[in-house]
Specification:
With 253 residues, the chain is mainly alpha-helical. It folds into two domains: 3-127, no CATH class; 138-245, no CATH class. Helix content is 69%, strand content 0%. It has helices spanning 3-20, 26-47, 52-62, 65-72, 88-99, 108-118, 133-145, 147-161, 168-178, 184-203, 212-245. Helix 1 (3-20) crosses helix 6 (108-118) and helix 8 (147-161) packs across helix 11. The longest helix has 34 residues, at 212-245. The two termini are 24 Å apart.
């Protein structure tokens, strides 16, 4: 499930909790929210729902929060007026149990996101100018979760974009090779790809040299560095995309 779809699910559970507040005791409310999350997650898995529009269809099949709580309270005879008001501190343990240690009360931007999603056409097209916000948020979150890996991406891109700084690729490749976040395929591709491109560029050199060391140096500084820079930019862009999709768990070595 994508990060935006997960936020949509948590916002839905938060609205159900708001609707159940004052109608169900705290313990029963927490148990109900935990069970509801399990049922929604299972329904999403059965339907193969990963993207926000797919998760939204699953949530619609469960009904709006007020209707869910009304069905849950059907045998209780209405609201529980005798239950004393509870503070946010008292509700916090129940909220964490239902939402997996996430904030129980939806932040204003989450509520706005859910409201805007509910009002979209059935085709799922986002209004112009707003489709980039989730991507920017995901990118910023990836940088906060993996700052060394984000720095290595920057080193790759800078070494490929600025010819005088091509040597920075060595530092970026070292950081990628030592990282426990990238997968084995990512590390091999990011390190070996630019090396292979450099060798190919050196073989394409049309200059002349009397000795092998002169050939190596001349071809490296001429066409070899061009292959290195092109491959570094490609690897940097690939790693940037992969970084956004990472979920924080170290990859298997």
């Amino acid at each position: 499930m994508t990060e935006q779809a997960e936020r949509m699910l948590l916002d839905y559970l938060s609205r159900v909790g708001d609707a159940a507040y004052g109608r169900l005791p705290a313990r029963r409310r927490a148990a109900y929210l935990a069970d509801l999350r399990t049922r929604v997650s299972r329904a999403c898995a059965d339907a193969g729902a990963e993207r926000p529009e797919e998760v939204r269809r699953v949530l619609r099949s469960f009904g709006d929060p007020a209707s869910l709580v009304a069905r849950e309270c059907g045998g209780d005879g209405g609201p529980r007026a005798a239950e004393p008001p509870r503070t946010d501190a008292e509700d916090a343990p129940a909220a964490r149990a239902a939402t997996g240690n996430r904030r129980y009360r939806a932040a204003p931007w989450r509520a706005e996101s859910a409201a805007s999603g509910a009002g979209r056409p059935a085709g799922g097209a986002a209004p112009a100018g707003r489709g980039r916000l989730p991507d920017l948020a995901a990118g910023a979150g990836a940088v906060r979760r993996h700052p060394p890996e984000a720095l290595s991406v920057v080193l790759y891109l800078v070494s490929g974009a600025v010819g005088d700084l091509a040597f920075l690729w060595v530092l970026g490749a070292s950081m990628v090779a030592l990282s426990g976040v990238w997968s084995r395929a990512d590390r091999w591709g990011a390190v070996c790809g630019p090396i292979a491109a450099t060798l190919v560029g050196m073989l394409l050199w049309r200059g002349e040299a009397d000795y092998i060391d002169q050939f190596i140096l001349g071809s490296l500084l001429d066409t070899g560095v061009v292959g290195l820079r092109l491959a570094a930019v490609g690897a940097g862009l690939y790693l940037a995309v992969r970084l956004v999709t990472l979920r924080g768990a170290p990859a298997a070595r």
